[in-house]
Amino acid sequence: MTLLAAAPYTPQIPHWIARAEALLLDPPSLQCIGPLAWMVVMNTVWRGDGIEQTRTLLSQVSFPAAQAEAFPLSYMLFASARAQIEGAALNVPGARDWVASGLDVAAQTGIHLVDSMVQASACFSGTIASDLTMAEASLVKMEQLLDPAWTLHVLQVQYLRAGILLMSGDPAAAVKSLEGFQKRVVATGAVTPMALGDLLQAQALALNGQAKAARDHLTRPGEFAQRFPSPMTAFQADLVEAYSWFSQDEAAQGLAALRRALVVGRRLNAMAIFPFWLPQMLTPLCVRALKAGIEVEYVRRLIRRRGLLPDSPAIENWPWPIRVYTLGRFAVLKDDASISVSGKTQKKPLELLKALIALGGRSVAASTLSEALWEVSAEGTARHALDMAVSRLRKLLGDDGAILVQEGKLSLNDKLVWVDAWAFERLAGDFEKHPGDAGLNLAQQAVERYTGAFLAGDEEAAWLLGRRDRLRSHYLRLVNAHGSALERLGQWNQAIDGYRRALELEPLAEAIYQGLMRCHLELDEPAQALETYRRCRQILSVVLSVSPSPQTEKLAERARCR
Predict the structure, then answer these.
(1) How many angstroms separate the CA atoms of 331 and 349, rounded?
(2) Which of 187, 148, 182, 163 has the alpha carbon at shortest distance from 6?
(3) Given this model, what pLDDT does residue 437 score?
(4) In angstroms, rounded to a whole number, what is the distance separating the alpha carbons of residues 374 and 352?
(5) Using CA atoms in the order 199, 170, 51, 81, what is the torsion angle rounded to 10 degrees?
(6) Distances (CA, A) of 36 to 57, 109, 258, 464
(7) What is the distance between the alpha carbons of residues 425 and 470, in angstroms, rounded to a whole number?
(8) What's the confidence (pLDDT) of residue 431?
(9) Per DSSP, what are the bridge partners of residue 364?
(10) pLDDT for 379
């Protein structure tokens, strides 16, 4: 165990670890189980590889509870190792059970020599699994057990305190709490704590906006990762480096480091990060990875497994727990699988979902929804019906947090629910803030997002018509603005493709016919321009009983004169 901390590069260590694993399944004595298990587990979590294999191995080790008091130190080390590996596997209840088991034996025997190690395992398990309550409680008990003469114990407490501050969202305090840490740990000669200490300081500095200083602390972790080897350390170091580059708007360097990190993460199938899980760093990196197409399947698995929440609801390719499609169709997806809907009992909850979206989706008065969906005179009856529908909708979506109710108002939780109409409106709004050619890409994304009328096929209830008309108006403005921009750039064929697609969705929009005719005229295609004119004239006459406008007639005359 000492070699793992002080001389992890010793060539014989892999052989000794393999021997320890074999002995755990056929131990010469219960007395050796604890030290062997601790050595195997620390080797595993520091490397970051083989978490599940080690967990499976330890589950096969027999250490009868009846024998625990006869070999208390061995059992407590075994319990500590089990807690550590269960935490690394994100099994917090299992980690808690093993911590309690180890401390029970300490209490029964009065032997408390390794209480601090058991509490350290609990603290590390809490940090890995983002259970700060567990981590903080265990750290407080470690501080109560602190022996000032035990330097590595003192440094471990300082290290864990800084990590918890970092996880709590206070990187400045974490940086301050680490003052003098590295100098003291270097004096011990313990190689592994040196590397992990530098890595923690790099994380704290990066999140504190000190990007260059953060990268300066990554040299030792990088060397440790290669020589030990420790793919987990390499994974974390590259994540920190990527974050530091992105914070300085150095996208190329950031993407290179992020790609290195996620290749390793995917190979490890890393769902946990030892020792500190930092959503505030990982969430923006996952966003970057998804946008750049880096290890997408692994990143989506990671997001789902750890329940990461996006910084912005505009990120469409985030693995949203719930997706709702309302443009051109109505569909509800949970974890990318369609929700199966049948029976009258589910009709009203889905109507409620539609109405909530149509009325804005945020802070919609319960009374407004009741009036829209229930034709009943008694206010109490309508409110009861609404409450019942909310309950059923939450059950249907599989997450009570998807529908928020506060002070008599309902909202869809945009941290959990993605709605295509909202995505379209955000893109349209972003385009309006960037008029002209600068917003060309935004307009393109927006028109592609609009795949048909809002809740097409639904009865024209009063509560949906306003939103349907607004979305349609947004779409037509975008099509015309996007097409006009392409025309100014002389990209006539691209403009034609866009206008034709728009006419499939909005065949009564005369301005789109005009754009299409202009493009054909610029390409010296008068026959196609006239065919477009005839189609326009026919559909306006049949559906609206009107004739084309003077602007359309002038374009047709130009085509005839060619």
Answers:
(1) 13
(2) 187
(3) 62
(4) 10
(5) 100
(6) 12, 22, 36, 67
(7) 10
(8) 81
(9) 410
(10) 59
